[in-house]
Task: inverse folding
């Protein structure tokens, strides 16, 4: 996955703003290249430890996308106090196998950011290339 430094910084800023709650959002683009960060509202009842993006928000984002950001490249969320690795809950709730999952952790400075493919509960780290 290709992610510019500017967009990476935008994801980290979202995580810092939302802390101590988990932030969440969508990374839109084309062919594994992220072109836009779309911050979403975490609507989970316990946002300190879980995240949930409203399905309508996802559909609206995809409908309003332009040519350069028409695909869902990844879904991101933060772990304010734990490592940037998918929890058992994250793995069981990964319902978009075509999308990558990006996690940012604020437990250390600088924040950690990693990307994964999650399919049937199995986790595989993928590289994040800065452009």
Result:
């Amino acid at each position: 996955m290709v992610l510019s430094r500017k967009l990476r910084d935008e994801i980290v800023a979202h995580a810092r703003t939302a802390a101590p709650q988990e932030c969440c959002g969508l990374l839109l683009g084309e062919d594994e290249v992220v072109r836009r960060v779309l911050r979403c509202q975490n609507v989970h009842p316990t946002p300190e430890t879980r995240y949930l993006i409203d399905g309508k928000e996802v559909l609206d984002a995809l409908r309003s996308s332009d040519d350069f950001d028409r695909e869902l490249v990844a879904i991101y969320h933060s772990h304010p106090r734990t490592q940037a690795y998918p929890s058992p809950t994250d793995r069981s709730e990964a319902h978009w196998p075509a999308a990558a999952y990006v996690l940012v952790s604020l437990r250390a400075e600088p924040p950690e950011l990693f990307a994964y493919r999650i399919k049937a509960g199995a986790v595989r780290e993928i590289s994040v290339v800065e452009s």
In short: The two ends are 10 Å apart (CA to CA). The mean pLDDT is 93. The first helix runs from residue 5 to 18.
